[in-house]
Structures are given as structure tokens and as C-alpha cells.
Amino acid sequence: MNDLNTYLLVAAILFSFGVFGVMTRRNGIAVLMGVELILNAANINFVAFSRFGGMNFDGHIFALLVIVLAAAEAAVALAIIINIYNNMNTINIDEASSMKE
Amino acid sequence: MTEFTFWFIITLTILSAGMVVLSNQLIYSAMALLSTLFGVAGIYVFLWADFIAGVQVLVYIGGILILIIFGIMLTNRISSVRLSQTNVQQGVGGAVAIWLCILMSLVISKTPWFQADASEPVGTVAEVGTLLLTKYLLPFEAISLLLLGALIGAAVLSRKEN
Hints:
Number of helices of chain A: 3
Radius of gyration of chain A: 17 Å
CATH superfamily of the largest domain in chain B: NADH-ubiquinone/plastoquinone oxidoreductase chain 6, subunit NuoJ
Helix content of chain B: over 70%
CATH topology of chain A: Helix Hairpins
Largest interface: A-B, 68 and 81 residues
Largest sheet of chain A: none
Order of helices and strands of chain A: HHH
Shape of chain A: elongated
CATH class of chain A: Mainly Alpha
Distance between the termini of chain A: 54 Å
Order of helices and strands of chain B: HHHHHH
Number of helices of chain B: 6
Strand content of chain B: under 5%
CATH topology of the largest domain in chain B: Four Helix Bundle (Hemerythrin (Met), subunit A)
Largest sheet of chain B: none
Shape of chain B: globular
Strand content of chain A: under 5%
Number of strands of chain B: 0
Distance between the termini of chain B: 60 Å
CATH class of the largest domain in chain B: Mainly Alpha
Number of domains of chain B: 2
Oligomer: heterodimer
Structural class of chain B: mainly alpha
């Protein structure tokens, strides 16, 4: 509980799951969920290092900025996915591979 | 008791993260993502970051997860079979992910991390707020502009053309 390595290992496992999701999922929204897992893993690292580096608050600021970026990314990505669905009637990213209809 | 809660939260986070990427039902993935995000918020509490934990619950669970569920419902008929989805190339993906995990675990356990003693702060909101409006004022404004632009862009992109 008071060991930095525990938190880093949890973040590493979350990151690996996220990478696995991004690589293997076909559905665009499921890929987005993998990206969220990766961002959360990065956030755990930021906060853990700030806690074990003498309670430095800079890590908290970085975590906040990452959360805001995740929100912006999710909004834009979902708008794009809904557009793809309207144009191609699928959101499987291996089927929606053409740039033009 | 604290120890038990800690390991419970860790287990919950990892198991539901696995379900997010392995489940065949998209809605189940979203629900598993909910408990993963809650677990991460719990980890933040154990790391003395109460404000970040609150923001995690508000923004991730209250905002991003709802957006994702909206996305699922707008792009699938909820009763259709297409809502289920399969993974492709699980062998290669799994191998790369496990290799990454082992590599990072080795690096983490072998590195002598710098650690400094600290006492638990009473609350972190005041410190974070002061930093945001002094040392990190420019990044704060930049990220505000980016968020505004992204939200306007999302609204324009998803609007029906006529």
C-alpha cells in the first residue's frame, strides 16, 4: 500500500490491457475504451510519482490536464465515429477503410 | 481493513480492465469500464489525491462514460446481434501486450526510484488551485481553449447536413 512499485505495476497492467484493446478490437468505440485505459494508466503514474516524490503537486496538475485532454478526445472521436456510421453504416474500423465513398 | 480495501480496489480495477478489452458485448465493456474508472478513483484516494479522485468520478464517469454509452446506442440498434463484436488477431495482440507488460514490470522492479518522505496533506484542492492560477496559468488557459475548440468541433462534425 505504501510502495511505489505496486502502483506502477497496476498502471503497467492497465496500459497493457489498453494496448491489447486498441490492437485487437474491431469496433471503433471499443478502441476508444482502450485509449481511455491507457490514459488512466498514465494518470496513475503521474499521481503516484507526485505522492512518492515528496507530495509534489505538479503531478496532480498533469493528471488534471490529461483528464481534460481525454474528455476533448472522446468528444471529437465519438463525433467522427457517428459520422462514419452515418456514411458507411458500420463502425468496424477494418471495414471503414476508404477515404471516400 | 485499509489493506483489504486497497487490494480489493486493485483487483477490481485489473479484472474489470480485462473485461473491458475481452468482453464480447459492447455494453458489458462499457459497464466494466465504469468499475475500472471507479477503481482508478479509489487508487487516487490511496495516493492522497482527493481532488483528482473527485474529478475522475465527475469527468470520466459522469462525462466520458456517458458519451461512450451514447455513442454505442447511436451506432447500434440495441436489440441487434451486431452489438456483439469480436476481437481480431488476438494471438499477436496478446503476445505484444504480455511482452510489454513483462518488459515494463522488469524495468519498474529493477529501477531504484527516487523517493522522498512526505506527510499526508489535509486537503489538496487549495494547493492545486494555487498552482493552476500561478505556475501553470498558461497551460491552464491553453487547455481551456483546446477543450472549447474540441467541443465546438464535435458539435459541428456530428450535426446533420442539410
